[in-house]
Amino acid sequence: MDKDEDINQLTDLLIDNEIDERTIEIALSIICHRFSFTSGAVYETDDIRFFYKKETYSNGFNLPDRVSYTISKIPGKVDQSMHFITRVTYKPSTEINILDVFHTENLIIVPLTNTESQGFLVFTGNNESRELNSQEKRHLFIMTGLISRYIITRIGENKVKLMQATYESIMDSTGIDIYVNDFYTHDILYVNKSMAIPYGGKEVFEGRKCWEVLFPGQTGPCDFCPQKHIIDGNEKPSSVYTWDYQRAFDGSWFRVFSSAFYWTDGRLAHVVSSANITDNKQKEELIQYMANYDELTSLPNHRKLLRDGEQIIEHIEEYEKMFLLFFDIDGFKAINDTYGHDAGDNFLIELSQFFKGIPMLKDCVYRKGGDEFVAIIHGKGMTRMNITNLSRFIHNRFEKTWLLNKTKVKCDVSIGVACYGEDATTMKELLYISDMAMYQAKRKGPGNTCYGIDVVKNFD
């Protein structure tokens, strides 16, 4: 075959073809046949320690699958960016004897780029291989240049794929859910794996707007969308906006970070990243619960009583009435002294269940401390007669015995009542008046109820 025909054959093979292993192997075989080489191979680097053999052509001679990265510093004769190494002319470095590495007496190494650090072509000859003349070197230079450009394209594509895979791996391994949407159309541009999995995978997000996936059935942007917080008056990216969000279908809590930035095509985009804080929220809720609820009875405590009462007063309407009922158990000390503190605790638990079972007291009774309980009753149409009927019902229950561990115990309750607006206008005053009214009821004897008007008001 004419020498130029070899080049034409190689050109026809490589031009406009898909970059694949078979094409490269055929190209290597054309070069090896043209110059009577024993074998030829492509080596590409892992950028760390080794060059790995990719495609290869061999006429009964196997090249190593990998070689040390140190051979990228190749000594020897260089001609037109090709290294011609023979046992006669080669003086091995102290680091490596390159001919021994490839188990040959004659070697040609052609860098794929202007340095061997990315990869190289290698060709071996038999022991009788002669040195190429200048014309042959020119042809080899042209032919290896053709295949090198072909392989370099692949290396570049592989690096892009590797970078994309690395980027995806990083995004999927951060423990943070991330998605990006177009700032104005809300079309989803990117979503990472951890964000997508609970909704059915990344394909669920493709070609859709964020609310269509996150809030099925919704027909427009979310009312709480924070976009107005992440751009300035010129619609330029500004600060990061942070907020907490609870996912509706599983109750998980997330700390969400929203910010604006420019997408790869220049459009303004909105990136939303979120970290699961369900455990933290549960711990916060537990701490809040412990701070606001009584451990024994599970009723809200004195601290929550004051805060809830102040909020009710702050928002009470003119036509609403608000009553504070103060309960104190008469004879509770005798239960503790006679049957022990466990029995006393059991009685308080039974009593709290009784209070919570009364519709008027549901969600509005508190344990102030010890054997003292307080209820806040308010609403439209609430009257003193309602409170009187409630008090009578409670006293009737206390006329019966309580069963504690198969032991029947008997006690009474004294009730003091204060009315907002008539007796006091602050929570502190109402609590004081109802307390004084309760003591007034206690002085009258077991099973009594007294109102604020029965008490002489005496504030500091």
UniProtKB/TrEMBL annotation:
SMART domains: GGDEF
Source taxon at top rank: Bacteria
PROSITE patterns registered for this protein in UniProt: GGDEF (PS50887)
InterPro entries: Biofilm_reg_signaling, GGDEF_dom, Nucleotide_cyclase, PAS-like_dom_sf, Rev_trsase/Diguanyl_cyclase
Domain annotation GGDEF: ranges: 320-454
Protein name: GGDEF domain-containing protein
Native organism: Coprobacillus cateniformis
Biological classification of the source: Bacteria, Bacillati, Bacillota, Erysipelotrichia, Erysipelotrichales
